[in-house]
Amino acid sequence: SLNASYTSENSQLFVNNQFSKIKTTNKSISLNIDYRINDNIYIVYQTNLNDIKNNLDTNISFKSTQFNNEITLNWQFLEKHFLQFNALQTSNKISDTKNNHFLSNILYRYKIKKYNIDLDAQIFNLLNTKEFTTNIVDNYSYQSNFYRLRPRQLLLTIRFSL
């Protein structure tokens, strides 16, 4: 699927004890692809680009660009084995500040069908990324969230039904 949008809005904002006119434009495009290569391999790819610009009549302008790519590969092999790999790349730019991040996780699952048990081994933050930043921008504000991430982590789980 492919989605695109364009919005333009004029409004007033109370800044420094006076009303100022603000014009906001938002351009967005996203692409989602779900593709089954065969009965055993399934890929999901998502990407989106958002470009937001605010102009105040006081000759102040503000621009933000956000670009995300995410891919997930699911592979069912040898009937009892399942492997999933996920990778996310983000790029955020607010004015002159840029943030680029790459995150990935991996999951291996072994199924014991006779007893309806799944044994999972998951590695989170495979590349040991230290930090992650997200930006939220709208007509009246912008917010930047900074996260410190846990180091690479291995999680072993057993799932069963009673």
List the helices and strands and how they pair.
Elements: E1 2-15, E2 18-36, E3 41-56, E4 60-77, E5 81-94, E6 97-112, E7 117-124, E8 131-137, E9 142-148, E10 153-160
Antiparallel strand pairs: 1-2, 2-3, 3-4, 4-5, 5-6, 6-7, 7-10, 8-9
TL;DR?
Helix content is 0%, strand content 78%. The chain is mostly beta strands.
Structure description:
0% of the residues lie in helices and 78% in strands. It contains no helices and ten strands. Strand 4 and strand 5 form a beta hairpin. The two termini are 40 Å apart.
Could you list some keywords that capture this structure?
162 residues, 8-stranded antiparallel beta sheet
Number of helices: 0
Proportion of strand residues: over 45%
State the major sheet.
8 strands, antiparallel
Chain oligomer state: single chain
The spatial strand order of the largest sheet comes to 1-2-3-4-5-6-7-10
Mean pLDDT: 91
Strand-and-helix sequence, N→C? Answer: EEEEEEEEEE
Extract low-pLDDT stretches. Answer: none
Secondary structure class reads: mainly beta
Report the span from N to C terminus.
Answer: 40 Å
Shape: elongated
- How many E-type strands? 10
Give Rg in angstroms: 22 Å
Helicity level: under 10%
